[in-house]
Structure formats: C-alpha cells, structure tokens
Amino acid sequence: MQSVLPKGNAIIGQSGGPTAVINQSLVGAVLALRGVTAVKKIIGMRHGVSGLVADQLVDLTRTPLKQLEALARTPAAALGSSRDKPDPEYCARIVQACRRNNVRYFFYIGGNDSSDTCRIVNEIANAQEFYQLRCFHIPKTIDNDLVLSDHTPGFPSAARFIATAFAADALDNASLPGVKINVVMGRHAGFLTGAAALARPAGRAGKDGPASGDHGPHLIYLPEVPLDPQRFLSDVERVYARLGRCQVAVSEGVQTEGGQPIVTTLAKGLDRDAHGNVQLSGVGALGDALADHVKKHLKNAGGKPVRVRADTFGYLQRCWPDVSPIDAREARGAARFAVRMAVKGELSGSVAITRAPGRVYKAAFKAVALADVAGKTRRMPPEFIQGHCDVSEAFVKWCRPLVGKLPEMARL
Amino acid sequence: MQSVLPKGNAIIGQSGGPTAVINQSLVGAVLALRGVTAVKKIIGMRHGVSGLVADQLVDLTRTPLKQLEALARTPAAALGSSRDKPDPEYCARIVQACRRNNVRYFFYIGGNDSSDTCRIVNEIANAQEFYQLRCFHIPKTIDNDLVLSDHTPGFPSAARFIATAFAADALDNASLPGVKINVVMGRHAGFLTGAAALARPAGRAGKDGPASGDHGPHLIYLPEVPLDPQRFLSDVERVYARLGRCQVAVSEGVQTEGGQPIVTTLAKGLDRDAHGNVQLSGVGALGDALADHVKKHLKNAGGKPVRVRADTFGYLQRCWPDVSPIDAREARGAARFAVRMAVKGELSGSVAITRAPGRVYKAAFKAVALADVAGKTRRMPPEFIQGHCDVSEAFVKWCRPLVGKLPEMARL
Q1: Chain A residues near residue B167 by CB distance under 8 angstroms
Q2: Interface size, chain A vs chain B, as Cβ–Cβ contacts under 8 Å
Q3: Nearest-CA neighbor of B45 among B85, B7, B86, B78?
C-alpha cells in the first residue's frame, strides 16, 4: 500500500490556543510517521504556518524517544503556535514553502480555523500540476466547538481543571460565605463552563432543577442562553437568600438577548485580536463588572453589603498539567489516526471522535472531510441545557467520563 | 502528668483565609485530643469565634476516623472560617461562651490575627477567678508572614500551586508570545509571589542576575520593594526586546515608594474588608491596570501593539487540592504539637516551625509565646530579594524543598 504513496517529507504544526495535551498529538504524529517508508524527513513548523512561510523549521526525524515522551506530558505547544488565519494568498505561500521543502504530507493540529487552513492549502496544492500535497487536520480545542465530534482533544483536560477548581472554590466560598463569580473560557460554546457542574457530587446535577442542592456551582451561565442582568441579579438573590452564599459559573462569551457580549455593555477599551474578535481572555473585566453589579444591589438580612468576589480562571484552564488520562490518550490517538489516513492513501481529511452508546465509555476515531469541519462552530445542543442557568443531567452524564477521577472532597 | 490538667471540654476553630491543608490541622488536633483523658468533649466552632459566641457548635468527639481522614485531604475550612478580629469586649463574650460550654482548652487555627485573639481570650480568662482556660494558636497562612517560623502551614501548598502555574503558563506564553502578567496573593509579604521563581529549571534562578535566563518568570515584583510604573515598563521592554515575550509575577500588595498600594493609584471603587483593608483578592483590577499600562507604551519591532494579557490567580491559590506532602504532614504535626503543649501543662502558646541547617530538609516544631507572634507580620528578609525585580538564589534554596516534586516540563 505504501508504495503508491508520494515520496517526500512530512510537516507538522500546532495552531491556535494551546492545550494541556496538544503535544500528545504532536508526538503521536511524529512517532506514527516514523513508521511510514514514503516519508523521508519529519519537519516541525515553529509557530504554525507563520514559521513555515518564514522557513523557521525544526527537524524531528531523529528526536530521541525519551525527549518526545517528556514533551508529550508537557502542556502548551512545544513547536510554538500561531493565531494567523491565512487567506488564499497566504495559503499560496504555504504551498510554496511546502514545495521548497519537498513536503508531501501536511499535518496541522488546531481548531476549526486550522481545518480551514488545511482545506485552502489542499485546494491550492491540488490545482498545481506535478505537485502532490496531502493535508490532514488533527483536532484540538478546549472549547469543544468542532462539529461532527462527540468531543475534541484538549477539552477533557480543561474540563477536569474547571471541575476541580469549582469543587475546591465552592468549599472556599462555604468557609467564608459570599457571592463568588468565576469566569470560564469559551467564546461561543458553553461546554467548558458547563463542566463546572461536575463539581457537584455525582448524581446531583439538575435533579430538582437548577441550583436546588447546596453544592456549588449554584448558577451556570452559558453563551448559548442570553444573559439578562436583571434576571441574573434575582437568580443570585434567590440562592443567597436560601444558602447565605452563591457560587456562579459564567462563560466569558455570555451575551445579551441581542447577541452582544455582556462585557461590551459593561466595560470599555477592550482589545480585539487579529481576527477582529473582542478580547475575552486575559482580562478580569467581565468578572469585575458582574461582581460590581451584584455588590450594588444585593444586601444581606442585616441590610449590610454582601461579600462579592470574582475570579477569571484565565490561561491556567488550557495549560494546567494535571490532564485527563482519556484526553492524553485520545489526543495522541487522533494524530496517529490522521497519519493512518495518509498511509491509506487519503488525499486530505480531519479526524472526529465518536462515542458508542452505553454506560461504559467507549470512543472511536472517524475520518471526516475537511470541508465538513472547516470554519464551522458547534454549540451546546438544547438537551445539554436546563433552564436559563444550568446544564442538564444529560450533559453531566456526557461530560463526567471524559475528565477522569476527580480529587475527592469531604464535608462535615 | 495528665492528672493535674483541668478536666473539661476542648474547642477548636478555623479562622482567616482557608488553605489547602487547614483541615489537616483540624484533624491533627481532634485525633490528638482523643488521647487526652482530661478532655471530655471535643467541640468544633462553626465559622470560628463568630460561631462560638452564637452557640453554633459541632461535636467532633466521635466523628468517624474515616470521615476525619477524608476531611484532612479536603481543602478549605471544614468548620467554616471567620474574618472577625475580636476586640476585648468580643473576647469577653468568647470567654463566656467557653464557660457556658465547660471549655478548658481553646485551639484556634489561623494567622497572626488569630494568635492575637488567642492572646486576648487567654488574658481575659486568666483574670477570672475559678476558671481555667488554656489557649493555643495553631499557625496557618499561605502568606507565610508569621514571625519566628521558618515557614507556615498552608504556604508550601500555595507555593506549589504558584510554581506549577508559572511553569505551565510560561510555556503557554512561549507558544503564543507576548507580555503575560500574573497577579499573586500576598498583601505584605512576597514569599508566595517569589515562589514563581521555582518555575525556572532548578539552579537557574538569579544565576546571572534577574531575568537573565529565557525561562519565565522573567520579572518578579514583591511588596517589599517599591514598584515604580516607569521602571516597570522599561523592565518589561528590556525582556521583550531580548526574548519577544515576558512573563511577570506581581504581588497583589505591590506598593509605590510612598507605601500606597499600586492598585489604589490605578483603579477606583475598591472594596474594603472588615479590617479596613483595601480588597486586593477577588478582583482583576491590578492585573488589568498593569496590562493597560504596558499596552499603551510597548510596541514590537514592526511598530505594532504587543499582545499583553493579565491573569489574577485568585482563590485557587489557597484551595487547589494538589498539596505539598510536607505541608500536609506539618499542618497536622503543628496541631498535634499544640495539643502536646496543653498536655504538658502549658497555659498558652503558639507553634513555630524551625528548620535545621544542611542540605537535607529537616524541620521541627517549637513552642513560642502568644505575645511574641500575635499581630506581628513577617516580611521577606533582604537576603531573599535580588535587585528590584527578582528573588535570590537563597530564597529558591529555602523554598524548593517545601513544595514537593513539581510536574516535569520539557522543551524542544
């Protein structure tokens, strides 16, 4: 089979926000490519396609196994990442750089922007005579917003961090009671914010409706459900009146009914990234604005102001090194599967993860077309959302197996 | 020996900001008290002395060992904590509540405010005829700001979180380069912020002066050294020009030359706590203000604005459940030592940790007088500080053994 494959080099890059397991995918691809006889050199791009077009490359053909395995256990993109979102002209330069380096196999680890880059690069290369370039996308995103997949490598480890953080922080907030707002990453999709519900003891989530138990988080605000500041306030008041405290999970992407990010209505002077998006991560503005909103209006039984605090969990969500074991395995497996697609003679493609129904967790990889993933965004399905401020039991059942065994926490 | 001890009940409470190991101290005290024949009941105060005076008590005399051990591994104050800082009148009510409950042994787990509460309660009880109350302070603070101790239970686990967070975040920042500012807890003492230096590979810290290596953190700002916003900017510029990125550790307590918290000069509308202190935790204002300051002035080689992000690590610093093994052991040991002081017939006291000189870590507990600890604040000694924006190698040598083995992180 391998005899019909074009002979040449393979190149691999990492793109977008790093994750705790993105290097598992890098190492999975490199090790699998070492077994492919048609592949001569295995080249890494420094900082994704921006390094490729600038000839900032690193030879991974003979990197020692021990070093690779140490890298695999290390969070963040070992090759460096890039936020570049190439247009057709940029992609033409990528194809040129690939030709220059005799690259026949192009692997790009990233989210839906990266699969779009793969798609355009593939199209441009296909249009050129006498040059074969096969392009494969290896999925990665803590946001879990790729279509056609049950979940995405990177998400389970980030969800593990969020579940652990909310469980510990809920106990902190029970120690010194007040309103505690925690802002979670996720511009469009609420999966990661929803993972906060795993902090509740197993089997409790949504049982008697949102915020019915005394375990935090008591309120969960997703970007899929419009946030009304007035209703938000009465939600917090209701929980606070019942328990004397309230732990709130808020997605950084929460929006008004009109589709405006809440933070743009509450704070000024916000950064925009290279894609023109408002900067939601790396600033505490949303948490502080919501906390101020609660402070202004909420009083305790004695008429005194209530203790209100906000934490924005920030970049630790995507780089904390205590990863989900399933995630580490799947991130490596997805890359291996992409190499296997190439070896089978596929000309391009992406990898999806599917999950078998049943009580025991069982997942498989599936080949999908680049065009079916590229640039598309998955959001929380309605059956994962309960009311306007909680996730459903179906979400919890879906999410819990992914994160691995969480630290046990006891109460008096 | 125990026959001369007053017969009655023992009471124990937790105070101030919780830590990841404060329940080890609770469990250590309860288990040790079970071996004291003069002690009839072991009572827990709900939310410290505020629960005691309101008769919100919990009987721990026969709580099952298995439950206690599970609590010991759980972060945050299992009994609930309190920020009350009792004056003599409040302390008189505490003594009354102790008499009401036939308490002869009073144990309070907390920082220097809590040792002061112990001291006042002890004085008031001593002045009363026909009532013996023996008061012991069990040290706890992530700030490490208790005098007479090499370090304080709670600090090593928080330092472990900070070292892990900076190591992972440095790789994230190397993946997508920019200026990254991380704000660390610690109002007066820079020990916890300094622990960021442990994120550098062993033996590198301060070797060739501050920020000489390429590993983050590149700049460390402590509350002990005045922060000049202009100098801060040129520090960041210097590192950014050399590496194309810069990771900064900033204590929430950084001050101007005149002793004003930097945040009060940069942001408005700040909360004050029950002690009249400006709220430094639970808001992102300082990080955002410093990030804005850098954004306004720093340009990259192409004259474009630089990517600048800030994270405020928040309450996860004190409740993250991946604790330092030494810290867990010492938090329990300090409480056991306090009970041993009581059994020996001491009338009051606090516990200090001393460390033996030498390459191998070896620590011991020592009895100290309440008045010698109460209300006093330890700051970083000059030999732990290097220049205006780093810690010294002496600090790193002091700190590294405390945090336990950190996750290994590799680079290409």
Answers
A1: 321
A2: 197
A3: B78
